[in-house]
Amino acid sequence: MPHPDTKRLADVERELRRKEKALAEAAALLVLAVEPEATRAERTRDLAGHAVALFLEVDDLDAVERALAGVPVVKARHETFYGTSELYVREPGGTTVGFSMRLPGPPTPAAAASDP
After folding, report:
1. Residue ranges of the alpha helices (H) in 1-116?
2. Checking DSSP bridges between strand 96-102 and strand 84-90, what pairing results, if any?
3. In this predicted model, what pLDDT tens digit does every residue of 73-108 receive, in sequence order?
4. Which of 5, 28, 101, 110 lies at a C-alpha separation of 20 to 30 Å from 89?
5. Contacts (Cβ under 8 Å, ≥6 apart) of 4
6. In what helix (H) or strand (E) does residue 85 lie, and over which residues does it extend?
7. Which of these, 16, 20, 9, lies nearest to 101 by C-alpha position?
8. pTM flag (> 0.85)
9. Could you give the angle at the alpha carbon of 90 between the alpha carbons of 101 and 35, nearest 5°?
10. Domain containing 59 — which CATH number?
């Protein structure tokens, strides 16, 4: 007999995946936002000496990559030794934003050798 909370847990997992996808899409849109050059220069002065990065794990890196077409790439899409495919971009304010998707199966030795 299944546990009484099994359906509820499955519903919660589905909702979390839906929200994760929405967050990744929102982050991609943020990266695409256009900012006036004067505002960007002012913010760059204000943030001098500070470093921030945002890292998001997503279900569909292909969709994120399509949405980010034309955005400055910090590190091109690559497979890691720990079993993910990742892509890093720079948003208009200068923040590095990384997107990661788990690959099916165990990590491959070839990916481990190619990941710097």
Report:
1. 6-32, 37-46, 61-67, 109-114
2. antiparallel
3. 889 999 988 899 999 988 887 888 899 999 988 776
4. 110
5. none
6. strand 84-90
7. 20
8. no
9. 130
10. 3.30.720.110
